[in-house]
Amino acid sequence: MRLSRFLKRDLVILVLAAVVIAWANGDLEGLLGIPGWQSYGVRIINMCAINAILALSLNLVNGFTGQFSLGHAGFMALGAYTTALLTMDMAAKDRVFFMTPLVEPLRNLTLPFLPSLILAGLIAGLFSLVVGIPALRLRGDYLGIATLGFAEIIRLIIQNVRKVTNGALGLKGIPQVVNLWWTLGSAFICYLMLRNLINSSYGRALKSIRENETAAQAMGIDLFKHKLLSFFISSFWAGVGGGLLASLLTTIDPVQFKFHLTFQVLLMVVLGGMGSLSGSIIAAGIVTYLMEFLRIVEETHYWGSITIPGIPGLRMVIFSLALVLVVVWYPKGLMGDSELTAQGVKAFLGRFRKTLRLKGGRPV
Amino acid sequence: MQLSMFFQHLANAISLGSLYSLVAIGYTMVYGILRLINFAHGDLLMLAAYIVYYARGMFHLPWPISIILAILLTAGTGILVERAAYRPLRDSPRTTILISAIGVSFLVENLGLVLFGGRPQPFPLPAVFDSGSAREIGGVRVENITFAIPVVTLVLLYVLLHIVHKTKTGMAMRAVARDFDTAGLMGVDVNRIVAITFAIGSALAAVGGIMWGMKFPQINPLMGMMPGMKCFIAAVFGGIGNIQGAVVGGFILGVAEIMIVAFLPSISGYRDAFAFVILIGTLLIRPTGLIGEKVAEKV
Amino acid sequence: MRKTKLVAIVLLLTLLLPLVQGCGPKAQTENGQGQEEPTPSEVHIGVYEPMTGASASGGQMTWEGIQLANEMHPEVLGLPVRLHLEDNKTDKTEAANAVTRLIDQKNVVAIIGSYGSSLSIAGGEVAKNKKIPVVGCSPTNPLVTQDNPYYFRVCFIDPFQGKVMAKYAYESLNAKTAVIIRNVQDDYAVGLANYFKEAFIQLTGNDKSVLAELEYNTGDQDFTAQLTQTASLAPDVVFAPGNYGDSALMIRQARTLKITAPFLGGDTWEAPEFIEIGKEDVEGATLSTHYSVQATGTDASREFVEAYKAKYGKDPNAFAALGYDAYLMILDAIKRANSIKPEDIRNALAETKDFKGVTGTITMDENRDANKSAVILQVKGGKFEYLTTVEPF
């Protein structure tokens, strides 16, 4: 009895979610004449989903395995370029590669979106092995700088090998296949995959590596294999995230993938709690949303005849400040290393209600 | 390549190397004491340059005062950053404090963008270093500033080594670097020593930043990022935690950077990558750097 | 299954958050068409420029011109014109977000922007989908307007600009050989250098007239390696497009190395800081750009120059002038269309012919690029002096 009750409840929620997504995406327009949601909101949700994928994947390595990797932007770049080069048709490529023509097999090759996306992840994963095999022998700060270095090297290669990537000129005219179904769907699959991984014996091994590497090794866990696996999966999803981003923006160039991109993802992981999957999702949503919301402080406002000028650049100051404050005062972030659960929410509300009900806050 | 060209390159290489050394020392000192890569170090360089820019441009203060002001304010900022962003995290895992350092670095850079504007500005030059002040030596034209930089670096290095090895404060610094907790138990005021270390490191970065501005008179709020990275790499290469190592690392990195591009101009687009390749190579082959000592890992 | 449900709830919640913000003071758009209600009381024009980030200088200069134009011409068709500025932080994702926000939240009927071709390409994609016309002030990459019927520009494009400087080098300087030093990270520099090279080779009839193409990255400050090689090749001219800070530094170092060949560049050099950083060493540096205070003598441009000087206390630069022209061209299109519907504005813009801007006479060609003349400036006596105007050829 209980099982079917749960299943029915979950099913209802999933269907509701599907309906909402269909509405927002504009799918209901043709069918029922209900127009979709405004595209600014849809754009933000798309970015939220992509950022959630990025945050989740970085969290796997940094939060769950305890390996400080700063190379995410490099793998995103690989995924973005792979997706772009595979989904653009030949005419689009010829238009963009007007300086140095694209190398032959790539020029003729055009694949549908799904295989391109998966290939994007695989290629990013492949490069992660190239990076990981030497780099994962290092610990702590050194690993961070080494991965940062690799990401920069990848970016510089992309920038210089013009006959494959068009270098600094970038790519334009990437078909915009991405919509809410793709982004939210990918985010959902990513979450499921990572959650199952974390709750499995592999996941426990990763967490033990995070807690104490030497002890884990003494218990018989193959450090290298596990670190490499988590690195591979993380880079795979970083590549997928990059591919989705490329399709959303329809244009990419190497300058986008500098270190500050990794910093933004790191910000989300830290804010959400390094070691909490739902934390990463929530933080991704909040940060993406705030990035847009805080434009208010940068815009000029017209109130009747008064014009209040904005201060451009204030958004990033606020974010940097937020990162420092969170790290210093709430190093566990929003969720610490626990997940969002129904009981957790009920317990939290219960405590909240109790403090409100008491006089002067003293426990009864 | 002709001999005179080679010497031209060499002169520039030594100059660049000295700049890197100066800033690398700051990195290595902080790492030695706190085991922290202070990402924000490179941005202190930028801060000092802008202080001099405004002191000269807006307030028209004479040069010596501008320089001293920049050094003092930068050192003060370094101490402030340590108190606010690093001290509360002393007992936290290393990655947390690293993230804090990254955050501070971005904060300083973005504050710079908001306060100073994103446009590159011309750095004021004292007459002795201004245009046309180059000398010719055996077919090689070298600007005055190119001479001045290694000289200043060596002088400061001498003073620093004197402080570290011949004064009580220096001994305390070495003690704290060797063993943080025991030094505290032995009566060393650890907080004060850390603050002094940060002050000295930041002051050196400030001098580096001012000389950087004089050699490359174009400043912008993001100018500290790449040099900061490279100087850290230099410190690691030479042996992190070791002052002589930082100097050696800085020189070698500067020379390598210039010489590789000089001999192989077709890969000058990859110039920044060299530093990272050197870093990765060092970390894989000899992680303690050229002059570092091996440290056994305690279980 | 519990966790799946929670995740669905969490994702749904993140869906709801922007809804709260989505109800801004003017949001009643359906499907983001940006259509106004029947009787609008204001005309909203969006501006997206890099006000922070690497190209902040360009964005700020352009914004100054647009603002000035708005102050001097605050009304069209009897309605006040409101400008909405969004910073794109020199970032493509931000550029796309900025344009989306301008269209959805601020209900703009036209947009001006952006400095930086790669940013314009990203923003243009959004504008194309939402059918809102955009006028670019200074992006010179041909890809910006290619395939995008909603993107226009008031400036010439790089294929022309490259030819202008090649022609100047060949005819006025009698150059037979050149070395190119380009910023390999900047799509503008890479593209412009490429067009220069093609034109120069064609003019000299010699495949090898470009002796070398040397490279550097944005923010590099030491160019001695590239310059030493240049010195050993002894070219007649050096073509070095790039942003003004790096280029000024490069020319200083070149002079120290006793390179006497003239340095040529593109419109990004035109900033007062170029001379402030370069000082005496950049004397003789020559660049192509869109506009010179000394070039045009029309009443409209004199009016602009005086107003600019009065407001900002310095001479206007090309980007401010282009911003000014972009704004006025939109107003002109609105007047001709006698409507503030985006589709009508777009059509009127496409038909722009002989529009008299301060940067020259502007006519939209079939790619929505401006067929106009370039101006060549040279640094003389610590100032940008006007040399000559080059008509389209």
Main-sheet strand order of chain B equals: 1-4
- What is the alpha-carbon Rg of chain B in Å? 19 Å
Mean pLDDT of chain A: 84
Strand content of chain B: under 5%
**N- to C-terminal separation of chain B?**
54 Å
Q: Low-confidence spans of chain B: pLDDT under 50, at least 5 residues?
A: none
Summary tags:
heterotrimer, B: 299 residues, mainly alpha, ABC transporter involved in vitamin B12 uptake, BtuC, two-stranded antiparallel ribbon, two-stranded antiparallel sheet, globular, C: 393 residues, alpha/beta, Rossmann fold, 2 domains, seven-stranded mixed sheet, six-stranded mixed sheet, 12 helices, 15 strands
Structure, described:
The complex is a heterotrimer of chains A (364), B (299) and C (393). With 364 residues, chain A is mainly alpha-helical. Chain A has 2 domains: 1-37, no CATH class; 39-357, no CATH class. Chain A contains 17 helices and 4 strands. Chain A has helices at 2-25, 28-32, 39-64, 72-87, 90-96, 104-108, 113-135, 140-160, 162-165, 180-198, 201-211, 213-218, 223-249, 259-272, 277-293, 314-329, 342-357, and strands spanning 171-172, 251-252, 301-303, 306-308. In chain A, the strands form 2 sheets. A two-stranded antiparallel sheet of chain A has the order 1-2. In chain A, strands 3-4 form a two-stranded antiparallel sheet. In chain A, α4 packs across α13 and α14 (259-272) packs across α15. The longest helix of chain A has 27 residues, at 223-249. Chain A is globular. By secondary structure, chain B is mainly alpha-helical. Chain B has a single domain (3-285), classed as ABC transporter involved in vitamin B12 uptake, BtuC (Orthogonal Bundle), CATH 1.10.3470. Chain B is built from 11 helices and 4 strands. In chain B, a hairpin with a 2-residue loop joins β2 (134-137) and β3 (140-143). The radius of gyration of chain B is 19 Å and the shape is globular. The N and C termini of chain B lie far apart (54 Å). The model of chain B has no long low-confidence stretch (mean pLDDT 85). With 393 residues, chain C is of the alpha/beta class. Chain C folds into 2 domains: 43-156 and 298-372, Rossmann fold (3-Layer(aba) Sandwich), CATH 3.40.50; 159-289, 3-Layer(aba) Sandwich (Rossmann fold), CATH 3.40.50. Helices cover 44% and strands 18% of the residues of chain C. Chain C has helices at residues 2-22, 56-72, 92-104, 117-130, 158-172, 187-204, 224-233, 244-256, 272-278, 299-312, 318-337, 342-350; strands spanning 43-49, 75-76, 79-87, 110-113, 134-136, 151-153, 178-183, 210-216, 237-239, 263-265, 286-289, 355-357, 360-362, 374-380, 383-390. Chain C has a 7-stranded mixed sheet, sandwiched between helices. A 6-stranded mixed sheet of chain C has the order 2-3-1-4-5-6, sandwiched between helices. A two-stranded antiparallel sheet of chain C has the order 12-13. In chain C, a hairpin with a 2-residue loop joins β2 and β3 (79-87). In chain C, α3 (92-104) runs parallel beside α4 (117-130), α5 packs across α6 and α8 packs parallel to α9. Chain C is globular. The N and C termini of chain C lie far apart (70 Å). Mean pLDDT of chain C is 84; it is low at 18-38. Chains in contact: A-B, A-C, B-C. Chains A and C meet through α1, α3, α10, α13 and β2 of A and α1, β3, α3, α4 and α6 of C.
